[in-house]
């Protein structure tokens, strides 16, 4: 009995003027997803303390959902060290960095009317199709000024896009801050987005080739050269799997067992019982060796637009010292691949 | 186009030392469920401003989940005026008020082992079965000291239980604070809980009868005598339906159309497409006349143990003045039914 | 390794002219929820073989959803022995048995317009409010012809309603077939439905009292006198908990441990990680002693309107012999409570 | 009122020996997801009647889940004309075609023990890691025998892999049947799978490059040259978006509005309110012009391992004539791109 009953729950008392970080800390004493969100906060802080390379996987319409500033904050303050994202989020990031906006809308609307008005809907958020087309053109122009005789890894491509955007941006965003902080961004399904569309529509004239396999190798090297790794998944999709699979890649490269990611947080609205990778537990990942058998890990079942604002505000408040003292990896992509701290 | 594009979203910027209420206010500018949680905050505050009778429906294992203090806070500060709950939450409230605790556990455990150790599991939370049995006995003793020749409405029963508990409690809770604040509590499925079990096991000796229909009539009177009504649902189940159906009851009683609840918030993890009442939208409820055709309403898809701590902390912070000035209904159950403000 | 790898999956091959029961049988070889549905089929058949009292818990808008005929089939053919339902399903059953219909609609509609047209919406299904009111009146008339000086258990009330309906019905339904087959129906939250509304609106004149505690005692006796019990939950809510809690009730009555339900099937769209009873696993229930520690059990995550048509068609096809030979309990409520087989 | 109430629902009656196609047809008369599954059946048949190019998007662990035979059936009988898949499903298809199996397991297991035994878990299904590695090697050997001086589109790569597999297979599968039926397969995130891993681990020696942009252009041409298009999504992820975005690509290529896909079915366990592309409605897609404003479309909220066996069995039974008479596109990839019927 004592084996099981060691710590009573602590029903939450409401206090005014509580910092978000204090509130989130107290939620450790409750149950269900509230406790899990608090645990995510605690695990993230622990990642910041050690020499851990932190990967963030980003899927879902987070930038249209208003999360650009939060991801930018994570990059700028080095609460993460490497980002893997869907193409759409990077496209929308580019769009917003160039000064364009999304609009507050509603999902209860006549979509055929929206189409007539040239408006694209993302659940409760609107945008103008023609503004997207301008961003297409921007990215196309950028790409076609690169060296078309060679394929580009997405990390390289996005780094150069971030560099260009940094000079022309109206507003700091993910690509620009990642460029400045030397935080690599990978996009394993870059074709599956407006970036891909932008390049495909002019494929007859200009053949731009991405080197996807190079990305995988690079990611494996990042993991291999890290003392320890931690993963944070917002949603599932290709970003989650792409980061998860690094451990398998390393294991095959070294022809040896690998320990797996030591810290793991996921915020998801999926569920394990559908059998897919997006909703699977970190326990399942332990069977594959992707996650360390003694990893600190938590899954928070929540919409990211609720969980992230509180979680990242709390980190921003309470982790100031951790951030200052943090030993984070510095990637040097010029010439030979290096990691310095 | 302008018809649709009136307000740009405002991507959230992370600020340290932001009050929860300020953070929640800012989340109005983002999208998806984060925006909806912010909207819930705004609607709740608007309810507090007018002469609105506020009903709270409570389902799910909220008290074992650590939400006792939050619901108590809502009652004590009159952020709600009437509570409809599952029996389980009231049983667990009684249990905690008597000084007993729930324990932090995990869902990854051998439940057959727990059974052997006499431990009951509620997802990631544990409790001792024998402690529950003591609470059974407490409630049975209380009930059998009532007048067994007459049926009791659950409001009456729970009021008297709150009175008794107030004298013997180790810790303020839902029943005790509701007793003190004269906030009525209804429990439409009271038999479907340990309260029902406690009374059924001794039914041969003592026949205790609840008058469920009386509750419905009382609830209808509450609505009928209110200037306006607002509803807040944590989960669905009988509490949601019981509050929703008051409008139909009133309409039949008066043989006239009724306006419907004017404010409506629900925090749920269910979804509309399964067709059930728990997950249905407030729009659907408008077709029935349960919700006002121009109601301010929002559904937040979130676990309550995440949404409530932030939402109620924010209300506690920012609504101090609203609460002070609030005109809330005072129910007088002695003799004839009355509402004073 | 051999400990884990004993049976290969069998990817499903499409065959034409396969009986539903054959198809469902083959789905045992696949994975995820398809396998679970097949397992539900297998467990239900096993229940029919032994001397098992089978309880069905019914929640969600199943009758408006077109499931009246399926539940009627289960009762008439004694694939179940006791039904616990929400009030709404029984009200809608009464409504349909009297020859009234639901209508095919859509959830993409202006609900305020529906309200004006007197139409109530249940997701994608419509009904006329005034037709519901006639059913209210029918139930009220029935109730007020009962003996108002005594409280009624819901089983008794619904049995008598079934008897009356059987004489006046336009179409066989749940209440009528249960009356004929002597299958008891319990409704723990009967007030939380149009049945409750119907009686509350005339409460001033006629005081009708339900005896909820009596129901709990009766259910406990049913379990106590059964050789073994099996449970089938469509959705969660009060019906699931009401059947689950019988084991606790019996345990307290006998002041002894009870084995728990030996067979357990649930079809749900809820999930365990929200912590509520509706979505909780049967493993969790084992810790409480509600489910036998060696029970055959399965949870199928699916909308019931998909799972039930296939599952019950398959049972109807393949279980003919099982049904013929089945030893089912016969309840005798006249005078003293008895179970015969 | 008549505007809304045109067709009564038809509660389903259980009949034995009903063909799956007949049962599914009858489910048109019920509500919720059962009705939607029936509607999916009806829409798919309508697609087969006209000159429609049918795209299937496949995500989730469908092949490990036992769906290989079903997808193979769809390809072989030309119930679909183009497949877009995650890499994992194609890897697992290759694995099974080579005679290897998945194993029936359980999600309630010690994953650290599985790891020790060299077993990988996919929810309730097991497989041997070392068998996966052999499949890695098989794919690597295949790839490194291609012309490494040029990039390959995934369609081309998978076609050639299907060709090789066809000669060496132990069992017909997706890649082999697609090769034979000349059904193109695209894999927009091919790197995000064991196929990518297999090539990345030897990247230093052999640089294999995929041409993702070429795929997008090809897909756009397929759409452009089709009389009409229909889409079927099992899950969301990159396959859904990749097919959806073809309309945007075509629109930009032609610098003109496009009609959008005319038929649309999705089977998903996601929900719209999270804001992501995987769970978004076809209505939302209409605002973007991806779906025709008068498209016949339905979303079925269900696990695919339940929905697909019934749906495809029903199609196999009832669509024999439709299939025989069907005018399907024949793609000719040799030299110049052509579509013949």
Written description of the protein model:
4 copies of one chain form a homotetramer. Chain A is 45% helix and 16% strand. Chain A is an alpha/beta fold. The first copy, chain A, has one domain: Deoxyhypusine synthase (Deoxyhypusine Synthase, 3-Layer(aba) Sandwich), CATH 3.40.910.10. A 6-stranded parallel β-sheet of chain A has the order 6-2-1-7-8-9, sandwiched between helices. The first copy, chain A, is globular. Chain A starts with 19 loop residues before the first helix and ends with a strand. The model of chain A has no long low-confidence stretch (mean pLDDT 96). Chains in contact: A-B, A-C, A-D, B-C, B-D, C-D.
What does the secondary structure layout of this molecule look like, with pairings?
4 copies of one chain form a homotetramer.
Chain A: H1 20-26, H2 32-49, E1 52-58, H3 68-76, E2 82-85, H4 87-97, E3 103-104, H5 111-116, E4 119-122, E5 125-128, H6 129-144, H7 154-168, H8 174-181, E6 185-186, H9 194-200, H10 212-224, E7 228-234, H11 237-244, H12 246-254, E8 261-268, H13 282-288, E9 291-301, H14 304-318, H15 320-325, E10 330-332, E11 338-340
Parallel strand pairs in A: 1-2, 1-7, 2-6, 7-8, 8-9
Antiparallel strand pairs in A: 3-5, 4-5, 10-11
Helix pairs in contact in A: 1-14, 2-14, 3-8, 4-6, 6-9, 7-8, 10-12
